[in-house]
């Protein structure tokens, strides 16, 4: 999760696509270059240890856009794919 957030901060779309599960990966990320990501808070995790095949991360990502602060909150699901953790999708809370 932290590496994907860092990739959003620096605009590394290639890394974001590589770290996205192939079954849910979009053609492109479509990030907005005017959005400045300003912080990440991990709120909760479940599973995701070396003994698991899936795990979740609930987070809050802070950003600044058009002179206003905002936040994105998501409960994300990750899974192992070819030995690496990849983003699968967002869970509906």
Describe, in plain words, how this protein is organized in 3D.
This protein has 93 residues and is an alpha+beta fold. It is 16% helix and 48% strand. It contains two helices and four strands, in the order ααββββ. It has helices at residues 2-10, 13-18, and strands spanning 36-47, 54-65, 68-81, 84-90. The chain has a four-stranded antiparallel β-sheet with strand order 1-2-3-4. A hairpin with a 2-residue loop joins β2 (54-65) and β3. The longest helix is centred in the N-terminal third of the chain and has 9 residues, at 2-10. The chain is globular. The two termini are 18 Å apart.
**From the helix content, strand content and strand pairing, which structural class follows?**
alpha+beta
Looking across the biggest beta sheet, what order are the strands in? 1-2-3-4
Estimate the strand proportion: over 45%
Head-to-tail CA distance between termini:
18 Å
Largest sheet: 4 strands, antiparallel
Q: What is the typical, i.e. mean, pLDDT?
A: 95
Approximate shape: globular
**Which regions are unreliable across 5 or more consecutive residues at pLDDT < 50?**
none
Q: Helical amount among residues, as a percent range?
A: 10-25%
Task: Encode the helix/strand succession as letters.
Answer: HHEEEE
Number of helices: 2
